[in-house]
Design a protein that fits this description.
Length: 159
Amino acid sequence: MLITVNSEEDMISLGKLLARVLENNDVVYLTGELGAGKTTLVRGIARGLGYMGRVTSPTFTLMNIYPADIKICHFDFYRLEGNELDDLGLEDYLERDGLSLIEWPQVAENLLPPEALLVKIELVEEDYERERLVAISGRGQHYQAKVEELKAYVNSGHR
């Protein structure tokens, strides 16, 4: 599924829409270059799940937890090497109740579940002021069904 996002407000709206299909214990992998809008999308998901507090990138803290309708664990692995993740106890967080939103999942591919919702955000023409293309796909039957559910929302005009 490919969606064009024209502004920060549109990215937040897309996050709110995504929140409609996400549930406890889901895992979402967010990829895209620095400044593409991953954390903005997380802010929209958090708003859609009832969290109205501040949402920031956990680049230096590695993880932020937001108490929403579903607890949100927001990870950012940008500054880590794969071997540094072994000591974090990542599996403990992924096995507990909550929604896991993971920026830069490619750093920890060998430690992460193979099934997830994949969200790839690309800049158009390398221009941070222009629209973004957001590709959403599901790895595994559970997440493929979520993409179909999301398509139904988009096709029905819900944004």
